[in-house]
Amino acid sequence: MLSEGRIKLAIGLLSFAGLAISGYLTYVHYYSLHPICLTGGCETVQSSSYAVFLGIPVALIGVIGYVLIPASLLIRGGWGTLLGVIFSFAGLGYSIYLTYLELFQIHAICQWCVTSAVLITLIAILMSIRFLRDEKVQAGGHQVS
After folding, report:
1. Are 67 and 102 in contact (CB under 8 A)?
2. How far, in Å, CA of 47 to CA of 39, rounded?
3. What letter does residue 76 receive in the DSSP assignment?
4. Quick check: 25 and 61 in contact, CB under 8 A?
5. Does domain 4-138 bear CATH number 1.10.760.10?
6. How far apart are CA 120 and CA 141, in angstroms?
7. Phi/psi class of residue 109: alpha, beta or left (left: φ > 0; alpha: ψ in -120 to 50)?
């Protein structure tokens, strides 16, 4: 069974990897570069109308999310755990939506987007484990710290 410390470390490392990907794609967006791509679809996805949401590059939204998730680990108690679950599942939901767009609207797959989707899925799973553990502790009448 994973200890709380190992779960936090894993979330931190996965978030750092997601931040690196999102940061790279944000850089590519703002400097109008061609992303490094093995699948051939990254540039198609990156240059699509779906790459910007409300005037904000989707990659920058990823940067913000991958900063907020590990930041939630610094908040003690149940609120930090709850915020981590909310941030990670918001990211997961948005990632599922973006994957749908890649497959059925853009008709191209971006390796960076797929990797980010895997990372946010793993983070959401780990955050869920933390949340369920906290719920068990609270149900047992113990204080969550």
Report:
1. no
2. 15
3. -
4. no
5. no
6. 32
7. beta
Question: What is the rounded average pLDDT of the residues 115-135?
Answer: 94
* d(C-alpha 18, C-alpha 117), whole Å: 9
Residue located via tokens 């967006």: 29
pLDDT tens for each residue of 81-97: 999 999 999 999 999 99
pLDDT tens digits, one per residue of 65-85: 999 999 999 998 889 999 999
Name the residue among 23, 98, 112 with its Cα closest to residue 64.
23
Domain layout of the chain by residue ranges: 4-138
Tokens of 16: 């750092």
Rg over alpha carbons for the chain, rounded to the nearest Å, is 17
pTM of the model: 0.91
